[in-house]
Amino acid sequence: MSGFDVLTRGEVLDAALQARDYLVSCGVPGALAAKDPRLWGRRAVDHSRLGWLDLPVASRGLLNQIEPLVTEARYSGLDHVVLIGVGADALPAQAIVEAHSPAGLPVAAAGSAAASPAASSAASSGASSGARPDAPGGLTVLDGGDTAPLGYALDRLDRTLVVLASKPGVSIEGDAYRRIFMAAFREHGLSEREIASRFLVITDHGSPLHDFARQCGYRIGLTDPYLPGHYGALSAYGLVPALLAGADAYRVLDEAATVAASLGRDEDNPGLLLGAILGGCAQRGVEGGPRDKVMLREPGGPTALSAWIAQLLAVATGKRGRGILAFDPSGGPGERPDVHSIAINPRAEGSSESDTSLWAPLGAQFLLWEYATAVAGWLMGVNPFEPGSLVVQEAEDDAATMLQAAGTGPLLTGDPAFVDGGIEVHTDVPSLGGSRLEGVLDALLAHMPVNGYVSVATYVSGDLSGRYLAPALARRSGRPVLYGQGPAYPHATGPVHKDGPGGGAFLIVTGEPAPGDPLADHPVPGRPYGLAKLRLARALAEVRALRQRGLPVVRLHLRDPVEGAARLIEAVRAAPGVRTGVRARGAARVAGGDGRAGRTGP
Q1: Quick one: pLDDT band at residue 221, thresholds 50, 70, 90?
Q2: What Cα–Cα distance (Å) separates residue 155 from each residue in 10, 159, 188, 278, 527?
Q3: From CA 265, how far away is CA 568, in angstroms rounded?
Q4: What are the structural domains, with CATH classification, of the chain?
Q5: 90 DSSP assignment
Q6: Radius of gyration of the chain (CA)
Q7: Is residue 531 classed exposed, middle or buried when 0-12, 13-18 and 19+ CB atoms within 10 A define those classes?
Q8: Is pTM, for the whole model, over 0.85?
Q9: Residue 70 DSSP symbol
């Protein structure tokens, strides 16, 4: 796919056309293309914060600079890349490897692995240890969630290059995985110098991680400290790990360049139309309410691209009581007046029932969504580039404090309200069902407003995923369900949950290490804890952060992860679906009712 196109209809079209006309009348397309920071106030945005617009061209020099390292790595037999990063630091590279890698190139990633055909091949791949320049070993993403990708990576130490990507500094997960690989390389017989050569750090110039990496003797790739982290898909964070893993990163830049020239125009500007759709709907929906929830559809199911879009929207727009939530069809409750759907690269025009369809190759998708999110933020009255609150860092710091206070002992988790089927129920939400799990779930959903949503974060190592719970919870609540694996999912989308419009009801699932999984509680060298204790601390910190903001949250702890998961799924599916009164849109779906359709593209 080389072209790009945006097609919308129905009530979404009406809101988008009004928003687009307003944007043009205010000169937003030209001002944004010129990187005019005054769009968000005279001193609100530094000119350099808009440097992401230049990356389709500027990043070519970066790839040329990294080519000698790629050649050296291949010559040394290092064709498998372990990417240690959380949220925005890892998702772009994962999306690039999924989309632009040689057939069969494995992708292993916590949470999203099972949803990706490439990742499925990773689980069963029998890749040989003899590296060939034309047969790279793939990408493994470690973000603190499921430890299965860790086992995959440790089995390939002789061909592994570790990339540690972070803008501000080393997260506690990043520190843990770095220590684990350092110890594993030593056991593998590598010298300290050889171990240092196996690490590449991607960070901002002058960041704490920059100084740390220099002291350790690691290879260092520096980025622009003014570039917002959630706008770094076409920077070193997305491109370098993908290129090292064997993906065609040059093609990604070519794809982005095809759409870049259109972004300064008032007409035939796909980014402007997409931004008008997002921002216009978030301002006005059916019967005057905001339509600020987006269901993202991809033909083969959700990929890392959808996850990246969700975090981009969450971080950029989740401010000052506003924000756009994105979720996938498994959490879709059916038609709702505050939800609109966007199909990403549907197989054929007219084959999608979504309100909007967007066709573009991956590089163009990155740039289009970044531009559209900036436009939507302008319409919503939020600055998508301001740092915002420290909600993510606060939770991580709290988890680190808990671990330090616990030392070699257990974390202080508090007593459960009750135990049902081996599941500890920890909540301050009044239960309507006595000591039954079903009653607690009903009570949690009852505390959700009529325009709210459910958020599920799983902090367990194993097969339990929020995607198994989302369809039943959506039917049960009649509301959208967002889900992901912690800590990456709360890290990536935390701003919209905690600083956004509110309305979330939160289910946090923790558990004991899975029996028979030696990596589930892998010790962290030099630290008085293992990975299981680290995951639990992260979950407890997230629960505390949500409760401090007055949000309803229930934490379920699975004493036996296998039996507990079965009991939880049973409880979620037990109640019948909820019937809600939603006005049918009927003929209004047909191209705005008068044959019109908003569209742009060559």
Answers
A1: confident
A2: 52, 9, 11, 44, 23
A3: 52
A4: 5-26+267-387 (3.40.50.10490), 53-255 (3.40.50.10490), 391-574 (3.40.50.10490)
A5: T
A6: 23
A7: buried
A8: yes
A9: H
